[in-house]
Model the fold of this input.
Amino acid sequence: QVQLAESGGGLVQPGGSLNLSCAASGSISGINLMAWYRQAPGKQRELVAGISEFDITKYVDSVKGRFTISRDNAKNTVYLQMNSLKPEDTAVYYCMCIKNVNYDYWGHGTQVTVSS
Done:
């Protein structure tokens, strides 16, 4: 089992920045991928960014150039630096990981609200 704990969400004005953190604990060996998803009200959950065990990153087009995913293996933590935030970035952001290719684990989510 892997436990994921997100932090760093909150209320920010348009154009502002937030840095989300996701700390992994438990049986963390064999994690192949860590990623951030988000779900806005009335919309499907979507992949925002992912980072593989080989540090290959992927972003949804709408956040390219604004968001950066990174990882600190020593702290078992993945980050999502979000800059130039827009109201349409408002959502609950979820951390997830894939372990041993077949098993996925999810955090409880953290709310990000972009509003003036």
Remarks:
- The radius of gyration is 13 Å.
